[in-house]
Amino acid sequence: MKRRPSNWAGYRGNQTEYVAPQLRWKDDGIDTTIGYSTDNRRIAPPAYTFAYRGSVQEKPDQLLGDRSDGFEVQAQNFFYNFEKSLGRDATFHSKMQHTELQLALRMKSPLGLAGTDTIYYSNTHSENKTTSTVGDHYVESKLSTGPITHKLTTGFSHDDTEYEQNEYDSPSALVQPYSPYTFSRSEGTHYSLFAMNSKQMGAYAVDMLTWGDVNLLLGLRRSRYETESSVSYLTSGSRRDTPKQAVWETTPGIGIVYNLTPSISTYANYAEGFSPQLGYRMCEGSKAEPMRTKNREAGMKFDLLDSKFSITTAAFSLEQSNTMVYSAAGACYTQQAAQKTKGLELDMAGELYKGLNVLFNTTYSTVEDLSGSKLEFAARPKYKASLWSTYEFQSAALRGWGVGMGITANDKSWLGDKYATSTSDPVKLSGSARTDASISYRQKDWSVILGVKNLFDRELYDFATTTSYVPLQQGRTATLTYKVKL
């Protein structure tokens, strides 16, 4: 259980109550785990500011909302994992999970600029309920065909979800955030009820083939997704139903790894995916096509220093298609080409020498609008990098003590999409770097770690897609963690 009286932004603090008992039975042929968890949380909104006159403004001194604003989450989860040996070379796996989730959101939400220094606020109040049952059942088997060994996985998965969203209509307001203002308290009028039932089923097969220094992964999945929904407008008494719609899709995947030496390998993979977009009212009167993705990646892996340190390099490309575009004139949707992300990535991890561990990642990526209307996307910096290093002292006098330090950095990003036809650029969010540190003391059965985030207490911003809501990262924060092995 965790409670905080208030968060950095001034809202009533976060609260977590979590209980998760489990029971496991295992013998020579069967391994079964059943469990239950209950998770009650309150999550306070972060501090935020705005951007106008071409730059990001200072954080307002006043609390723009109520101290009780935030998210309230209640979740219950039941699950089982079952494994049964089917002989020396095959195992049956069955996993199922039933989740009941309730989410309540009460927040004064900035929706957009209504003037040079005026923000349009919505008194947001919604309550959501989701009930889902998810399962995955498959057989893993090992076999050989001549010199080739196979690790074959075949199975099916299913997902049955019911979703309900209640929206409440509350008064909106025009607010000058740097002048004193008091928000009205209102629960609002129950405005609408949206309900949706969805079902997913899929059968799949994955085969890992090994022949000498070559590993080849082949995968194929056939999926069916269906949904039906309705929305009732309670104040007017009207209702709109979207009849049941279904879509089938086949998604392949392939990957290959070639071991050049015992410590150096090269790899490449290709995978397709899809996300159904059912329930939209299309301008052409047809059914919306799923959003489809094509993911390509190639790189090399280096296993160094007697497997204590590894380096991975990668070049990747992710292409999305069939983006939904709303037409206000017809109150309907059309579809267009989406975006293509290309980039390079470098990962390094492990022990450089005794006591010194390093974890490093850097990514360079660009996003291309395949429709040609956008030059750059909001909240998409080209460069990202993170470095975390720890050192555990080796001398007898300091044995058990350790220190750590890390830096997380990113390039500039835009507060809004940059269009080819625009005569001016959106507001630019400058690049930033945050420094974290830690000091620890460990013994065989217990440990204490003092961690400090944003060590130099810099004013830093998270990525944002709009000028009316620019979230701030938390200032210098210290956390003391004590662990005991029972």
Automatic annotation (TrEMBL):
Domain TonB-dependent receptor-like beta-barrel residue range list: 28-455
Q: Which Pfam families match?
A: TonB_dep_Rec_b-barrel
Q: What is its main location?
A: membrane
**Phosphoprotein among keywords:** no
- SUPFAM superfamilies membership: Porins
The Swiss-Prot or TrEMBL record annotates one GO molecular function as: siderophore uptake transmembrane transporter activity
Q: InterPro entries, alphabetically?
A: Beta-barrel_TonB, Beta-barrel_TonB_sf, TonB-dep_rcpt-like
- Membrane topology, as annotated: Multi-pass membrane protein
Q: Where in the cell is it found?
A: Cell outer membrane
| Keyword flag Signal | yes
The record's comment on protein family reads: Belongs to the TonB-dependent receptor family.
Name it.
TonB-dependent receptor
Could you tell me which species this protein originates from? Candidatus Dactylopiibacterium carminicum
